[in-house]
Amino acid sequence: MDGNLEGAKPRWWCAAVCIFASLGLGSALAARDAAPPSVQIVAKAVRTLPGRLEATVTLPEFVAIAAGESALRPVYEMQVDLGPAPRAAALYVPGLLNRARVQVNGHTVVDALREPDRSGPRGADRLLFATVPDEWLQPGINRIEIALEARRRTSLSKVWIGPESQLRPLYDRKLWWQVHAPVVSAAIIFALSGTVLLLWLRRREETLYGFFGVGGVVWSLHSVWGVLSDPLLPYPHFAIWWNLGFGFFVAPIVVFCIRLAHWRLPYFERSLWVALALGPAVVYAANAANVLDSTLMLWRLGWVGVVAIGAMAVGYFAWQRRGLHAVLLVVAAATAFAFGLSDWLTSAGQGDNNPVLLTYFSGLAFFPLVASMLIDGFVHAARDLERLNADLERRVAAKSVELRAALESMRIAKETAEGADRAKSSFLAAASHDLRQPMNALGLYMAALRAERDTAARDDLIERMEASMLALDSLFDALLDISRIDAGAIEPQPRAFALEPMLRRLCDEFASQAADHALRLALRIDARSRELNALSDPLLVERIVRNLLGNAVKYTRSGGVLLACRLRSADTPQPFWRIEVWDSGPGIPEAEFERVFEEFYQLGNRERNRAAGLGLGLSIVRRLARLLGHPLALHSRTGRGSRFRIDLPATEAPAIELAADPDAGESVGSIARLGVAVIDDDPAVRDSMTELLTRWGCDVVAGSTGEEVLAQAGEYPARRLHAALVDFQLSDGRNGIDAIRTLRGACGEGLPALLLSGASSAARLAEVRASGHAWLSKPVRAARLHGWLAQAAGRNDA
Questions:
Q1: Longest dimension (CA), the chain
Q2: pTM recorded for the entire structure
Q3: What are residue 303's DSSP bridge partners?
Q4: Closest among 647, 600, 619, 644 to 486, alpha carbons compared
Q5: What is the tens place of the pLDDT at every residue in 164-178?
Q6: Where are the alpha helices (H) located in 62-146, listed in sequence order?
Q7: Which of 510, 594, 602, 492 is nearest to 553 (CA)?
């Protein structure tokens, strides 16, 4: 049940709180009515009591019977000036607790003393409103006389006299808040609590429902009993049982609050039931000892304290849940305690002799709020059970479907795994073939070179060897690009840049190749490219367009190639640039659209002819487009050509020019007499590197570790070593990062260092990139290595 309650949300708590606030405010206003302009409030009277001295008293006044007296019969006389011509006057007494006779100028307005067997007024009868005929009034001073009769004590409130039109609303308001509103409040609480009680009868294990329902029903019945005109019981039984009734609804409600908060107070709960059981005997004994009034006041005060404990339990519950409904519960519980204490203080202080009791209204927030939560919790539990049954039925009905789906998933997974295995085998076979071809050519060229003595023929063999090396280098670069992208080693650096210069540069780059194939290479650029720039990484975008343009020129046999750039802004919130590469080549079947982006897949090149390329360009294009987040699309028809397009965001921001990539250009400056440390655990690589650097005029110190290089450099290594070329993977679990740290420890932190890595795995590339050092992938082009050394030499000169 607790879970249901915590999950339930009051659906109409706003209405409950509004009703509660309006009733509380109205009751406060009813207790503090101000006199209208023409109404006079008589607060002083001359009281005559048989056997006692005549006295001027302040109303309201309470008079208790003295020892030896059998009854109280005080007479109050007051005078009021109604002006020269009083008319349509009325008399309003908001607190008349005893049988009385009221006279104005000797004329009887009300006379209940003629009925000696009638009990004292209750409910609405405690309010007196009577019109006074005009002929009974006289100009100037008018005399009002009120005679009371009671067995124990009497009380008379202030007397209001004035125009009937102004006194009638005061009477009606007091009557509503004191009699009618408690009945309405009790009806609401009874309906809600009775509903919860019926739910408890359906589910006896939910004890919280039972405590709440019993407490609410007793509360509502007690509230109605308090405003009935007939007390149903004679004195003193009515006073005893009406006051005892507070305990009979407070006890179950407080137990509900304690158990709601999951407090374990068995002794406290037991003491409440014991108090209820012993209460009647104790109170009747107090009546016999003539201390009934004080005992009843203490009884009610004790239950006000019990309400405080219940409010604390609700506060703890709210603190654990920290929700809006929990806050409302705290406010409602605290208000119930405050109203109960206020009513007790009003009764003990003998101020207003007929006040509006706020206890009647304190439940208007608490009971609807909690009842709504309990009912919602019950409904949620029933719905959960229905959903569970329906779900079980669906599971049984769908068992065969699930089994078939599982078998189908297994079949698809098996086919996917087999496809991945075939793709892997195809990738390895293609890579092995493409690597073996130039390596085989190199071996044959080297064998021919050993037997060749003619200089011209040797030069031709060397040129062919360089071509094979270039093919190997291109393949390794493509494979490395794929590995770097997959490893996350490439981070886009978007910025605003101009498209036109880049596109013209690419067209110039492929112009000669297109002319060799007798193709027309055209460029069309939207004139607005001078006003709006593109927003992306210009180096990666250039790589994408270069690959697309290279493929188009390579595979087009006749016709031409078009590189177009247009600004698109219709039906889009943000304009964008669309770069398209058109060709009049053989086209691509629609069934092959996805496969052409796979590694080493080429249409019409099953023999792996290297002249037709490697089959990695479009794979790199798709990876880079995904990395940049730019849409990439392919449209093609067999025999009609193909069109590749990519969309880039447009921006009005000015173009930002970046410095050229130092690793991409040729060398500038001299590296003669540059001291270079070479660290590599492979003797062949170390010797070839030493030979090349020596031919370039460098002073080379080579070794397999940083310590070995420093030992060869001599006592002052900083004078001899100006740059370091370090392999990333060294023997004995070492790496180039540690070697660079060793060299810089001896030569200074400013020593330029370049990592050379032959790693192709994503993890290794990520590790190299995370080191923060400059790095190049093996095999390293001599021109790129020379360029980096020239920059290092320039930094040393500076």
A1: 159
A2: 0.44
A3: none
A4: 619
A5: 888 888 888 888 887
A6: none
A7: 510
